[in-house]
Amino acid sequence: MKRVFGVFGDPIAHSLSPAMHNAAFSALGMDCIYHAFRVKPEKLEKAILGAEAMGLGGLNLTVPLKETALKLDCIKPDPLAERIGAVNTIVFGENGEIKGYNTDGLGAKQALQNAAVEIKGSKIVVAGAGGAARAIAFQLAADGAEITIVNRTEGRAIELAKDISAAALSGDVTGRGLSELKDLLQDTDVLINTTTLGMHPNIDTAIATAEDLHPSLTVFDIVYNPLETRLLKEAKASGAKTVSGVLMLVYQGAEAFRLWTGIEPPVELMKKTVLEALQA
Ligand code: ATR
Question: What pTM value is reported for the model?
Fold first, then answer.
């Protein structure tokens, strides 16, 4: 009998996860299907318990459910998801146990590693202090990066830096206002944009321009709509190395696939599928 997997969110119609996971199941000859379900936060617990009762293979959670999930009694979060304060992957255990993970930070880490970035000891500036910044900064701090969070609302950057420092992870974390970005970039190895600047329909905006960047910098924009954001164009013009946000989407999905199935997913095919869907 076909095993059903899914993603819960609201809105969910434009999710790329069904195409990505169905391509992987099909390539591996697995009798599985992945479907998108529109679920509101107030119905999340019922939906997860229902999915467990019906024997679903596993779930992803997306906006606006990731933080809500962590507060549910039915989910046992792993330590990283608990620190991040959000769950994006649910694994159903044999004995009815429902486990919550967060693979977003790992997705970002693998996207950087794919571009040959050494994370331990590198100076990383994370622009933005929302949910995505939180997942990424917690993961990279745990991997020994020296992190500065810069945000338009400086207080949020300082708050996030404090949270990460309190978790006593190996890296050093500081919070700053966005006005300090230009100066900070002079002595930075990696810039990661997690703000909505550059995202459709605001495609002409960017957190930095070519003159703020330099050739020894790697610029990673987690925005993938459009595929080449204004920031990535500016980075190319400055001679910096660029990393596309599509890779984070693919690697977080690949990690969820491993957690559900224990099987190594076809990452290149998943990437190709997502790129085709975005270009369609
Ligand atoms: P997510 O959870 O997806 O990361 P979020 O919590 O809405 O999203 O965070 C969006 C981030 O983009 C925030 O860091 C926000 O800055 P503020 O905390 O000051 O709101 C940042 N952001 C959004 N629009 C921006 C703009 N025009 N200029 C600079 N930063 C912006």
Answer: 0.95
Residue 132 CA: which ligand 1 atom is closest? 4
Looking at CATH, the fold of the domain delimited by 3-102+247-279 is given as Rossmann fold (3.40.50)
CATH H superfamily, domain 105-243: NAD(P)-binding Rossmann-like Domain (3.40.50.720)
> Where do the domains of the chain lie?
3-102+247-279, 105-243
Q: For residue range 171-206, list pLDDT tens digits in order.
A: 779 999 999 999 999 999 999 999 999 999 999 999
The rounded Å distance from CA 149 to ligand 1 centre is: 12
The contacts of residue 121 (CB under 8 Å, 6+ apart) are: 144, 145, 146
Please tell me if the CB atom of residue 239 comes closer than 6 angstroms to any atom of ligand 1.
no
Angle 150-64-72 from CA coordinates, rounded to 5°: 110
| CB-CB contact of 255 with 103 (8 Å) | yes
Separation of CA 157 and ligand 1 centre (Å)? 11
